Amino acid sequence: MIGLVIKHKGKEHKIRKSNTIASIVLSLISHRNELILEGEDVALFMTIKDDVEFEFDVIDLDKIEITSSAEENHFQYVDEEYSKMIDERPPQYEWDEKLTAFYEIKNILLEEGLIVE
């Protein structure tokens, strides 16, 4: 079975699925200063730093010995700076972000003539 291995800060996480899909999503959201990695049993949330390193390998999981249990293989991390940043945001923050995105999309659609006001 083909799978993914993610290496970060000396730790390793193997993503293996019994179906045909093993996926991860790495998001760099610069205007919110967020770096987010999500996938099968993977959740990492941190502020953007210039020294963050990940290594991703595609491997045949049948050819390696997997010694950790599924419980030990979960990869979840929220860095302290990210947690503090989220706690300091005002309650209206997410709605303001969504409203800004809405108006950006609306203006593009108006300019393209796809909608009229």
List keywords for this structure.
single chain; 117 residues; alpha+beta; 4-stranded mixed β-sheet; 3-stranded antiparallel β-sheet; 2 helices; 24% helix; 34% strand; extended
The shape, in one word, is extended
Mean pLDDT: 84
Please write the string of helix (H) and strand (E) elements. EEEEEEEHH
Query: Which sequence of strands runs across the widest sheet?
Result: 3-4-5-7
| Strand tally | 7
**Radius of gyration from the alpha-carbon trace, in angstroms:** 19 Å
Give unreliable regions as ranges. none
- How much of the sequence is in beta strands? 25-35%
Give the helix/strand class. Answer: alpha+beta
Helix proportion: 10-25%
Give a quick account of the main beta sheet: strands, pairing sense, barrel closure: 4 strands, mixed
Describe this structure in words.
There is one protein chain. By secondary structure, the protein is an alpha+beta fold. 24% of the residues lie in helices and 34% in strands. The chain contains two helices and seven strands. It has a four-stranded mixed sheet. The protein has a three-stranded antiparallel sheet with strand order 2-1-6, with no helix packed on it. Strand 3 (24-29) and strand 4 form a beta hairpin. The radius of gyration is 19 Å and the shape is extended. The mean pLDDT is 84.
